[in-house]
Amino acid sequence: MSKLNETEFEARWAEASGLVYSVAYGLLGHRHSAEDAMQEAATIAWRKRGTFEPGSNFGAWVAQITRHVALNSRRSRRRRYAESFSEATDVHAAAEATPDAPSPEAAMSGEQLAFDDAVVAALGRLEPTARACLLLKTVHGHSYAEIGGMLGVPEGTAMSHVHRARKRMRETLTERKANEGAMT
Q: Whole-angstrom Cα distance, residue 36 to residue 31?
């Protein structure tokens, strides 16, 4: 098996970076954590480039790597939070140890897409896998089969996640709009 050379790898990575970001952000829900996961995934993909099958889907390959990195990061973050919470002397000190809220801007498809605060908040209320499925479907236009392959879930599960995530987003945004209307 031949390895991707540096130029080929860089070109394919640049093409897949929006997809990789969507997977990382979807699973982690935080811009800085997603960027860290992307960087780690790029390093791992570079080291494992000899295992990439020429002619196969590079985006799906790096999305799987990113998924594993993001899930490991989430587990690690939960462990650190649990440890800091058990060591904290009061609830406020433990709350300060939690990860930051999502940023209103997310870098997807190599561009900066500005999401308003309501959309970011609604995305933040979604379960991580549902958020990743929704972003991969709506932002990147992937099929449910592709999403399932990237995230390691059955195609029907990816479809269900997207459906429920869209419904939850509509409910959350409608509720917020109604609340804002009541305040004016």
A: 9
> Are 25 and 123 a contacting pair, CB within 8 Å?
no
Give the strand pairing for 105-108 and 111-114. Answer: antiparallel
d(CA 3, CA 49): 6
Q: What is the sign, positive or negative, of the torsion defined by CA atoms of 76, 161, 157, 132?
A: negative
Here the tokens at position 66 are 């990113």
**Secondary structure (3-state) at 125:** coil
* Structure tokens belonging to residue 62: 């790096």
| Helix intervals (H) in 88-110 | 91-96
Which amino acid would we find at residue 1? Answer: M
Q: Distance between CA 123 and CA 58 in Å, rounded?
A: 27
Q: What is the mean pLDDT of each run of 10 residues along the chain (184 residues)?
A: 83 94 91 93 94 91 94 75 45 37 34 61 89 91 92 94 94 84 68
Q: Please, what is the Cα angle at 18 between 78 and 5, to 5 degrees?
A: 105
pTM above 0.70, yes or no: no
| Cα 169–Cα 94–Cα 75 angle in degrees, nearest 5 | 60
| Nearest one of 159, 146, 121 to 61, comparing CA atoms | 146
pLDDT at 91: 37
